[in-house]
Design a protein that fits this description.
single chain, mainly alpha, Rna Polymerase Sigma Factor, Chain: A, Arc Repressor Mutant, subunit A, 2 domains, 9 helices, about 0% strand, elongated
Length: about 200
Amino acid sequence: MIALEQTLLHNEKDLLLRVAEGDEIAFRVLYDHYRKKIYALGLLLTRSESQAQELVQDTFMKIWEKREQLREINYFNAWLRTIARNTAVNYLHARAMEKLGLARLPMRESGSCFTEDDVADREYALVLQAAIRQLPLQQQKVYILHKQQGLRHEAIAEQLGISVLTSKKYMKLALRSIRMFLEHRMDTAVSFALIICFN
């Protein structure tokens, strides 16, 4: 098996063609050869071993689903980098969106341990808080009252002395601004991590 792996890796084009034809052994060789790069990317972005492994699985699942494209690929490393980048951005975006309604993560009882996912979640929450802080004051208030305190727009309008329509408008603008902030931060983080992990 080791001799086969070395032979396949020596001729990457042949390896890619075999994967394109659905050869699972060739795909395993490709996976074993490149997974450490994707794992390192995931670990750098999430600081969580479980989430990094999830990114590896998602990336290679996409490669397998797109395997027929491998026939035309001349620079696999660049193609893999693109797949990994898109997967990482989508993954981080989904994680960040999960946190949009959280004011802060619940505190643990003293003496209990934090898992690696807790650490990553706290980092997402910190980025979200930064996104909220950059909003105009009225948008901040509406966002906090609606998303974090669970008030309806009617109650927010009464509390802030604005119309229900204005409250909804501020909420829409706040969400758009937060998404843009998070996407920019994620794009920057992923681009930086790719440079480290793929060079």
